[in-house]
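In this section we turn from sequence analysis to structure. A common task in structural bioinformatics is to predict how a protein folds when a small molecule is present, because the ligand can shape the pocket around it. The inputs are simple: the amino acid sequence and a SMILES string for the ligand, here NAP. Study the lines below before reading on.
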Amino acid sequence: MTLEKFPRERYEPAPDLLAGRVILVTGAGQGLGRAVALACAAHGATLALLGRKQEKLEATYDAICAANGPEPALVPLDLATAGGAELDALAALVRRDLKRLDGIVHCASHFAPLGPLADESLERWLETLRVNLAAPFALTRACLPLLNAAPAASVIFTGETHGVHPRAYWGGFAVAKAGLSTLAAIWADELEHAGKPRINVLVPGPIASPQRSRSHPGEDRSKLRTPEEAANAFLFLLGDEARGLSGRTFEL
Ligand SMILES: NC(=O)c1ccc[n+]([C@@H]2O[C@H](COP(=O)([O-])OP(=O)(O)OC[C@H]3O[C@@H](n4cnc5c(N)ncnc54)[C@H](OP(=O)(O)O)[C@@H]3O)[C@@H](O)[C@H]2O)c1
């Protein structure tokens, strides 16, 4: 897997970049997912907001509506337990209520405390791999007919630095994130003739989010990029200016 520098130094999305489009964002209740959802809505998209906790999704819903964005749909779902039938039902719900799907941004992630592989249990590994690797695959697969029907759909998996530069103690989390890059490359290759949906990984680097506070406690958060600053890069990959880019892993 090759890690590539993000193709745009500074990106200023057009106000109507995603007008009329429908985007599903996972982990939309906090951190990066919430910021990406708000940014998509601010640029015209109707959102399907997926996360575990209904009240957090409702807070994102309220923020979008307060900013006069298109009314979002709420999709409370636990990706650690959702099976194929629930993911198919989710896709059917999007088709019924929102009529189309132009993109998925996978931000949901399960972060287990760091530690040596020798101390990992099979159960903890499976939960980490399920939420961070298997669920992004299965959710995208369930939505593939909808994505295929859209004129220029884009799927973004959110990577993490240790998936690209493996280091001690990052365990199943880093392995899952590394797997996303292989997944995107294989899928893009399989879809090369159709040219859509585009499927890429974005590694955002350190972001001042609730997860970062858990992985790097005591760090000075004021020096980190905010979720809102990182969100623009996701907009670029969702929009038509990124046409032709697929199967790649970009680092912000
Ligand atoms: N923060 C960083 O510095 C950084 C750096 C590189 C990459 N990233 C990546 O960026 C993405 C967003 O990170 P973040 O820092 O914003 O994370 P975060 O603050 O921990 O938020 C994670 C989100 O994932 C959702 N989630 C967790 N388990 C779930 C499950 N089983 N089912 C459904 N949703 C679930 C949570 O929803 P609930 O709150 O409803 O449970 C939450 O909204 C992640 O993929 C992360 O690996 C972050």
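The helical segments are 31-42, 54-66, 84-98, 122-149, 161-164, 171-190, 210-215, 227-238. As an exercise, try to locate the residues that line the NAP site and compare them with your own expectations.
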